[in-house]
Write a structure and sequence with these properties.
twelve-stranded mixed β-sheet; Fumarylacetoacetate hydrolase, domain 2; 285 residues; alpha+beta
Length: 285
C-alpha cells in the first residue's frame, strides 16, 4: 500500500499512489471521519482506507493537483545524526553510545516535485538522503522487540541543510529548519509492503551524478534502537516522522565541496519507496 497527501482545488486531501503516477482520492464519506492521512493512521484504518479508496476509484491526474509532504502535519519530526559509519568518518566525529537526535519543525517539510528553496542566508546548501519512518501506534518506553509494531510506513526524505547555520554553535537546529527545505515523499509505503528494511538501498543523485549510495543495513542505530530511545524521553504519536540519518557522500565533505544551487536537480531513491525529486530554486527570503 502506498499513500499520498495532496492538494486539489485548494483543498488538502489524501489517498493512494498508482504505478502510473496518478492518485486515487479518498472518498468523501471516509474523509469526513478521517480528514487527513495522520488521522487515518491514528485510527488504524489504513487497510480500510485502501479498500474504500480503490472501490471509489476517483482517479486524479498529477496535473490536477500538487503533492504535499506525505504527512503534512506531524506533531513531531525527529532526525538522527551520524547514523552511518561512512558519514561519521567523513564528519570526523567519534562514535557515540546513543543516537544523536535533533528536531525539525513541520513547516520545514515539503513535497516531492516542489521547488526546493535555497535559503538566501546560506552559501552552503547541502543534501542528505535518508529513510523516514512514520509512526503508526504511539507510546512511551517502547521496547525494541515491539518497535516495528509502532511503525505505519516509510518514505524518502531529503534533509536539506544550511551547513554554515548548522555550525554556528554545537546546536544544529538553525541549519535544519529553513522553510520547505526537507522534502518528504513521494509516498508512504506501508510497513506491510516493506517486510525487511535491511534489504533496502538508498541512493542520492545531484544532476544525475550519484553522490550517496548505501544499504539500510549499514545503519549504526537500527530502527528498534531509535524508537526505544526516542520513546524513552517523549511520547511518540501517530504521524510523527523520524528521519533515520544519512550515509557518507554529502556535498560538504567532498573535495572540493559540492553544494546545491538554483536549477540543480536532487533525487533521493530508496528501494520500494520511489524517487523523491526536487529542483532547487533561490528562496525569496
Amino acid at each position: 500500500m502506498r499513500f499520498v497527501s495532496f492538494e486539489i482545488d485548494s483543498q488538502a486531501t489524501y489517498g493512494l499512489w498508482n504505478d502510473d503516477g496518478t492518485w486515487l482520492r479518498v472518498p468523501a464519506n471516509f474523509a469526513s471521519q478521517y480528514p487527513d492521512l495522520k488521522s487515518a493512521i491514528a485510527a488504524d484504518r489504513l487497510d480500510a482506507l485502501e479498500a474504500t479508496t480503490r472501490q471509489a476509484n476517483q482517479v486524479i491526474q498529477a496535473s490536477q493537483g500538487r503533492l504535499l509532504a506525505v504527512i503534512p502535519n506531524p506533531g513531531k519530526v525527529f532526525c538522527v545524526g551520524l547514523n552511518y559509519k561512512s558519514h561519521v568518518a567523513e564528519m570526523k566525529r567519534a562514535d557515540s553510545e546513543h543516537p544523536a537526535i535533533f528536531t525539525r519543525f513541520a513547516d520545514s517539510l515539503s513535497a516531492h516535485g516542489a521547488l526546493l528553496p535555497k535559503p538566501k542566508a546560506t552559501k552552503r546548501f547541502d543534501f542528505e538522503g535518508e529513510l523516514a519512518v512514520i509512526i503508526g501506534k504511539g507510546g512511551r518506553n517502547i521496547s525494541q522487540a515491539d518497535a516495528f509494531e509502532h511503525i505505519a510506513g516509510y518514505a524518502c526524505f531529503n534533509d536539506g541543510t544550511a551547513r554554515d547555520w548548522q555550525r554556528h554553535t554545537h546546536q544544529w537546529t538553525p541549519g535544519k529548519n529553513f522553510p520547505a527545505t526537507g522534502p518528504l515523499g513521494p509516498y508512504m509505503a506501508s510497513r506491510k509492503a516493506i517486510p525487511d528494511v535491511n534489504q533496502l538501498t538508498l541512493e542520492s543523485r545531484l544532476n544525475g551524478q550519484v553522490m550517496q549510495h548505501a544499504s539500510l543495513a549499514d545503519l549504526i542505530f537500527t530502527l528498534p534502537v531509535i524508537i526505544e530511545y526516542l520513546s524513552g524521553f517523549t511520547t511518540l504519536s501517530p504521524g510523527d516522522v523520524i528521519a533515520t540519518g544519512t550515509p557518507g557522500g554529502v556535498g560538504d565533505k567532498r573535495e572540493p565541496p559540492v553544494y546545491m544551487h538554483a536549477g540543480d536537480v536532487i533525487e533521493v531513491e530508496i528501494t520500494g519507496l520511489g524517487t523523491l525529486r526536487n529542483v532547487v530554486t533561490d528562496a525569496t527570503q
